[in-house]
Design brief:
Layout: H1 5-11, H2 20-40, H3 43-59, H4 65-89, H5 96-108, H6 112-129, H7 135-154, H8 164-181, H9 187-211, H10 218-229, H11 231-242, H12 249-263, H13 279-296, H14 298-308, H15 311-314, H16 318-340, H17 347-356, H18 364-388, H19 392-412, H20 414-429, H21 438-460, H22 470-488, H23 496-517, H24 523-553, H25 561-580, H26 596-610, H27 615-623
Helix pairs in contact: 2-3, 2-7, 2-19, 3-4, 3-7, 4-6, 4-7, 5-6, 5-16, 6-17, 8-9, 8-12, 9-10, 9-27, 11-13, 14-24, 16-17, 16-21, 17-21, 18-20, 18-21, 19-20, 22-23, 22-24, 22-25, 23-24, 24-26, 25-26, 26-27
Length: about 625
Amino acid sequence: MAAPHWLRGLLSQKPVPIPWKRGLRAAATIAGPVAVGLAVGRLDLGVLVSIGALCVVFADTDGPYPYRAQRTGWAAFAGVVGYLVGTLLGESGSWVLVLIAGVSALVSAVGSTASMAGLQLLVFAVLGTGQSADPWLAIGCFGGGAAFAVFLSLAAWPVRGAAHERAAVAAVYDQLAVMLAATGKPAARQARRDLTASLNTAYDALFTARSHLAGRDWSYRRLFVLLTETTPVVEAAVALVNAKQPVPPEYVTYLLDCAYRIRLREPLAEPPTPADESRAVAKLHAGLRAVAEFRRGDRDTDLRQASEQTDLRVLVGRRTWLVVLRLMLCVGLAVAVGKLMALEHAYWVTLTVAIVLKPDFGSVFGRAVLRGLGTVTGVLLGAGVLALAPPQWVLVVLMAVVALGLPVGQVRNYGMFSTFVTPLVLVQLDLARAGDWGLVGARLLDTAIGCVIVLVAGYALWPGARHPRVGEDLADTLDAIADYLDHALTGKTDTRSSLRRQAYRDLSDLRTAFQQSLVEPSAAGKQAAAWWPVIIGLERLTDAITGLAVAVDRGADPVDHADTAVLSESVREAARSVRGERAPKRVDLPDRERLAHVVGELTSVNATLRGPVPPARRRTRAAE
């Protein structure tokens, strides 16, 4: 018998490579300060430095160094601010945590980096309320640990390692060069298969990365748009290979140069002027010029401004405000229960609530279950080790081992992450209580209370939590995008701005709803898992519409009303099919070069709604 979809989703591990470099950095930044403090006889200060490093370890990630610097820098800043506020408040001011929870969730709606910063603000404010050391000494050590962790995260910046997703996109250009070089040769067929595989790999890498982002992130969105811009290049290259028409060698060299520049995040050079006037080579040249223009920043800047200027005002939709209120309610209940039950370390209850309802709007049910299971295991390990009172140097070694596994849990499974992080935080906070067996029961009780608060107040009793309307939300978003398309492509400016804001607001709310539903034990969870690629496709479709609208604003001719009507009707038909629980009817879409990107994204969305084959596979099969 197959396990329920929600249980498989909770227990499954993501098939991603083990981040060994991040693991080694985590071990050095968390266990290193404790080892130094033990060596100089100030173990208490070493622990405070280690706690400061923890807020950066949570935020550390692979990827381009500017993005990593932004993410770890903001996480360190938010962690220091939260720890400062919590330390100054102490347990007597724990009610202020309710307001901090609201600010944390509200900030998190802006994007993935802001979401991580919001989490650190709340978590370390909670930890700060349980701090007993001198406030300013604790803040100094905490800030030093955070700065040390940021330094180690960015120390290899001169090496300029490329991100996995960026390397996958660059590999598409490498394979394009290989395929064009093999035109008219027996190796051309295999080269074309390799190109299909590289396209699938690039799309899958971006789909995976984008689906786990807490919010909107421009670095991944930009790679998506770049890969979409490459579609005409792929089509022209495949046509040349099928016709066995030789390609000027400078184009092969140019494509290899493009791959090199994409890996280094550099603008692309202008493609060589074709001496051959054939239509196929001209289409290849036009496609490469469009990609170069995007990478140079002309369309990139306009599209970014058009899609990101609404982040602060638009992305905070109604559903986001509901999540803000839910987080504030549960944090308030955690504080109240801790005071009423006179728990010795009541902040652990609030900490459990904060992490389970972390402000990136993941599934409440899933996080509560995984947090509970992982924390029970972690408490038994961490508190059990402390109760045995081993030599302190043994605890330092164990901290290094657990910290090494922390990034693995982050990328593989949230329950595994909780299993690693719980004993780590326990040892950091309760090192002075070594030999106390009562610590095991106390921490298990605190964790159980926190998970019960979340499951009862934040899930079972919260309006609509157990019966999410994923289908209706998806259909409403499709209608909003259709309204935006009607105005954006025809040059109407009266209500276009408000319609754009509404479309992006609905997309934000839709992503929030689906993230909450993915591992729910209801039929909506299975539905959300099947439709998740549609969200990514709709975001790309909206960006394509915005890009074309920007071109119209800059002087291009508006799109013909008849073509716009066909496109918007196709989007509305998709909405009707979702409401009617059927496949969308096929509509003959306009065959216009300037509408190729919009048509391509709309076709991918409809293909996903019709069947289980991901849009990346459909697109690359069509190209092949």
